[in-house]
Amino acid sequence: MEDPKGGAKPQFDGASAAGRKDGKKSRRRKGKRGGQSRSAAHPASHDLAGHAGEAARPKDDPENPARKRKRRRRGGRGASQSDVSVQSQPVVQPAVHSHANGPRPEGDSASSRRNRRKHRSKRGLQGRPLAPVQAPPSARADLRADAPARPSQREAQDADTPNRRNRQQGHDEERAGGEHAWPDELYAALDLGTNNCRLLIAQPTRPGQFRVVDAFSRIVRLGEGLAASGRLSDDAMERAIDALRICASKLRNREIRRMRLIATEACRQAANGEEFLRRVVAETGLELEIIDRETEARLAVSGCSSLVGRETRSVVLFDIGGGSSEIAVIRIGDNRFARLANHITHWTSLPVGVVTLSERHGGRDVTPDVFEGMVSEVAGMLSNFDCPEIEIGEDGDFHLIGTSGTVTTLAGVHLDLPRYDRRKVDGIWLSDDEVSAMQAKLLSWNFESRAANPCIGPDRADLVLAGCAILEAIRRRWPSPRMRVADRGLREGLLTDMMADDGVWRRHRNRRGQRGNKG
Q: d(Cα 374, Cα 368) in Å, to the nearest integer?
């Protein structure tokens, strides 16, 4: 039998681009009609082809329904009365060209073609690609942990250098997922500390959680030389303003519902701190507020609240900063408040951090005697902290939580990471023996060895042992069999407090409930 186009008839029904002379590919409809595939309408095709989905019939079969449908798609050529009789048989699956009042007349092929084109999108033809759905601008601009935005050259350098810790990956809040996020509710938190400038932009998701949309972190050493001069140096202010310009650009590019921008110990202590902040407003447009030490301690607790389990009864949380170190004693009774900061019974802020301590004792070449001298200085400050002893009833009732670059560095070295990875560090538990072993290892390294470690780097190599000395003094005051590492802090606390104050999670629950009722 010859093909209507004049060529040899193909052996099977399947459409073949090579069999068409006009250069067009005919479509093979493999979709199901009424829950039954096309090949299911012809049991013989399963026997001949050996598997479902291959509509195989012998060459000489004159009544192949699939071939007749193909002829009608080509313009009705070769369609005869026998075509109509085949489609009107009750055992055949619902035909594409069926009509409410019976089979179409033979001469209505042009109308049939128009009708097929009109409803083609509803039939889901295979090989017809769907147009990509365009997300709203705010959603397209969002950055996930596994797909960060393309940064500028300097920002890429900040993100790629491990010691600079661009923390835009791996928050528990991020892993909550975007399906529950409200893209019109963005919050921003900026923390300008003695050592770092950090920014987080996030949107609330599930109650108590949020998803990070954008992040920035850079070591600026704003407090460099502050202990000796009592003033912020010109070079330090320039470094900080350069970083703040990037933060201002990120904030301008988004519609932020609410933001809070804070400055901590360096601006608190410096004689020209207020003058510096006025310059920041003039050059970047950002208005930063200097928070007191109690607020800083409460924010650190708020940022780490999700790391305190329900079984915990007492916690000592510490944040080792660049110019100060905040310590909060938390006691949780039978009734736990929604905000963990409400359980703070005692707190203190030590006027010492990794920058100030390393400048006084030297952070580059640290011997065991120098290290012990740093520990003794911090222990003397802690001796003035009037806090009752913590009663430990059972194992697991009490532990330490450290939120600072010092403890995250120890965790990264302990895990022997080839590159610092926040997702592997945040929330990890370290035993007392493991912490001691890591501190001894760092103390045995010289400056070059510390700088070569991917979790430390050259920018922190002269600071990490000063941080270990502060940590050691805290451990001697509150001995604990274990410590939990938190790669989070003031920014997360700012975001959590703002979202809770605005009631976004409560409204979120209400919206979800309304959607559920409508369904």
A: 10
Return all residues near 456 (Cβ < 8 A) that are at least 6 apart.
163, 409, 413, 450, 464
CA nearest neighbour of 430 among 487, 390, 481, 464? 481
**Distance of alpha carbon 47 from alpha carbon 50, whole angstroms:** 5
How far is the C-alpha of 140 from the C-alpha of 35, rounded, in Å?
A: 37
Reduced to 3 states, what is the DSSP secondary structure of residue 98? Answer: coil
State the DSSP string of 209-261. Answer: -EEEEEEEEEE--TTTTHHHHSS--HHHHHHHHHHHHHHHHHHHTS--SEEEE
> Residue 57: how many CA atoms within 13 Å on its side-chain side?
17
Token readout for 343 is 């359980």
Q: What's the per-residue H, E or C state across 341-354?
A: HHHEEEEEEECCCH
Tokens read off for 416: 């022997």
Q: Residue 306 corresponds to which amino acid?
A: S
Q: How many CB atoms lie within 10 A of CB 189?
A: 25
Domains of the chain: 1-78 (no CATH), 156-292 (3.30.420.40), 305-487 (3.30.420.150)
- pLDDT score, position 415: 96
Q: Cα–Cα distance between 361 and 234 in angstroms, integer?
A: 24
Residue 162 exposure: Cα atoms within 13 Å on the Cβ side: 20
pLDDT in tens, 404-452: 889 999 999 999 999 999 999 999 999 999 999 999 999 999 999 999 9
pLDDT digits 0-9 by tens, 260-279: 999 999 999 999 999 999 99
